[in-house]
Amino acid sequence: MPSWPDRHPQNAPGAFYVDSQCTDCSLCQDTEPTVFRRDDEHGYAYVAAQPQTPEELRLAAQAAEECPCNAIGSDGKPADPSFGDRLKAAGLPEDLSSRSRHPAGGCGCHKPRSERAGCLGSLMRKISGTPSGTNPY
């Protein structure tokens, strides 16, 4: 589960944020490049700009739901009072944190942070077709 206290300092103020669980898989940046960017120096994603349009909100919520490491939160403090209205206009619930998370098929999303490296490793095994229990690198 994303953690507001563990969010990266580069995140733009507002509801969406990326926390320290990010493994830099680039899913969020590929899904919504206007909102999510990569910190090249530190190797993780962050929210460069809060979503403004209904489409940006929908895609940011999709990225949060599909994040294989569950590192994208949407329960931060919205910077503007119209955030709830904009969520409704985008067809999204006011409490995005209540949405079910995509488990990414056993990638390790729900493991403790100390074991989160398995998340990217399992994802790479899936992509490469390497059987579980072997090192794909």
What order do the helices and strands come in, and which of them pair?
Layout: E1 17-18, H1 27-31, E2 36-39, E3 44-47, H2 54-66, E4 72-73, H3 83-89, H4 117-128
Antiparallel strand pairs: 1-4, 2-3
The biggest beta sheet, please?
2 strands, antiparallel
Number of strand segments: 4
What oligomeric state best describes the polypeptide chains here? single chain
Task: Decide which structural class fits the backbone.
Answer: alpha+beta
Task: Spell out the key features of this protein.
137 residues, alpha+beta, two-stranded antiparallel sheet, two-stranded antiparallel ribbon, 4 helices, 27% helix, globular
Short structural summary:
The chain contains 4 helices and 4 strands.
Task: Outline the structure in words.
This protein starts with 16 loop residues before the first strand and ends in a 9-residue tail after the last helix. The chain is α+β, with helices and mostly antiparallel strands and 137 residues long. A two-stranded antiparallel sheet has the order 1-4. A two-stranded antiparallel ribbon has the order 2-3. Helices cover 27% and strands 9% of the residues.
